[in-house]
Amino acid sequence: MGENQTWITEITLLGFHVDSSLEYFFFGLFSLCYILTLLGNGAIVGIICLDPRLHTPMYFFISNLAVVDMSYASNNVPKMLANLLSKKRTILFVPCIMQTLFCLSFGVAECLFLVVMSYDRYVAICHPLRYSAIMSWRVCITLAVTSWILSFLLSLVHIILILRLPFCGPHEIDHFFCEFLSVLKLACAEIWLNLLVLSVGCAFIVLGPLCVVLVSYTRILIAIIRIQSGDGRRKAFSTCSSHLCVVGLFFGSAIIMYISPKSSHPEEQQKVFYLFYCLFNPMVNPLIYSMRNAEVKGALRRVLCKESST
Fold it and tell me: Can you tell me the distance from the alpha carbon of 7 to that of 100, in angstroms, rounded to the nearest whole number?
């Protein structure tokens, strides 16, 4: 690469190209969203842990999903908030790579947990008599641990491929965090292998799981239609509808960011998509699960009544 090559040690995150007055407004808005994300998902995890009636496979996976949402937001948002108030918007290269690793890991983990949850609902509705045997606690823990480990291993492959590249400039990323494709733009070598592995990964981690979810819910819908009882049909549909909302938000955002042609989305528009993905989705998910789920609302009332009585 040449003897006079300069290696990157520090990177500038350009963030949003707005006036300083709007930066303070964005800081307040994004801080509020981040606090709501932590409180909402933390409340979901707390309620599930405190109420024995929610110690079921479905809520076990929901609690894992809430942990993923809190972790994903905490990986990206604090640095973005700090940069909104700072004129020196830099990050060291190693923390930048770590942020990329965790961003990919938590994104893959959420995708895998959504697939596992769709399988759980499929077994519960299509094979209710065998549900306890199929979705035993041993199976649930194995699925959860496998999802976590697999997400980090798959993300580690991308990071290893990134670290084999020489990074000699530019020293700026036109984003509010170290997003994978933005980091690749800093490399001064061919990145075709990285893009090829990313394309294959998107096919297996986004499109593949999406097809599995769609097939599962197609069979679930057929099973719900065949239910004779109106109450049973409504209960089954309400249980699955919240998960379908989360699936739609997640996969819709992922397809726009990583599969649709980048030329159709300007840089600032892509930042809005990523902001929606890393801040809005984690904030909305607990609202969907709590507002559309009678069991969660009942558990919340029981927990609050128990606390008030003590």
Answer: 19
Q: What is the pTM of this model?
A: 0.87
Other Cβ atoms closer than 10 A to 197: 14
pLDDT tens-digit series, residues 230-288: 676 676 676 677 777 788 778 877 777 766 655 455 667 778 778 887 888 888 888 77
Token pair in block for residue 283: 């904030």
Triad 221, 227, 233: Cα angle to 5° = 70
Distance CA 206, CA 296 (A): 29
As a dihedral over the C-alpha atoms of residue 167, residue 153, residue 111, residue 299, rounded to 10 degrees, the angle is -120
Q: Where are the alpha helices (DSSP H) in 2-136?
A: 20-50, 57-84, 93-126, 131-134
Between residues 291 and 20, which one has the greater pLDDT?
A: 20
